[in-house]
Amino acid sequence: MSDGFLIDTSIWVKCLRGTDASLQSRVAALILEKRAFTSEIIIMEILRGAKSDKEYDMLYNDFLALPQLTIDHNVWGSAWELAYKLKKKGINVPLVDTVIAATALHHKCTLIHSDKHFNMLAKHGGLKVLEM
Length: 132
Fold this sequence. Notes:
Oligomer: single chain
Radius of gyration: 14 Å
Helix content: 55-70%
Number of strands: 5
Order of helices and strands: EHHEHHEHHEHE
Distance between the termini: 21 Å
């Protein structure tokens, strides 16, 4: 699936805030092209930030409508190894970000993000990233 894009929580938050029309257009285009993906852990991060039951329900329905990249045992194994290798190099990355990176790596997607940790993961873990 090398032409797919896993869209990180940091990008979704920017889109939901509505402060970057260009970014919203790019993400919308990827969704329409069926090249935008999410995962369970990204959905969890988004839903955790809901401000009300109504917003939670809206976000829940919207994000479940997107294609999801599964986080199976192979992804977890990759995440464990990646976290271990980074720690050996003295690099601390939040564990959620490590799982998101492992998901993108496993599914051969480019990770679209706005989070410095993913650039570290790209440098040391082979992750393909697009920072926006």
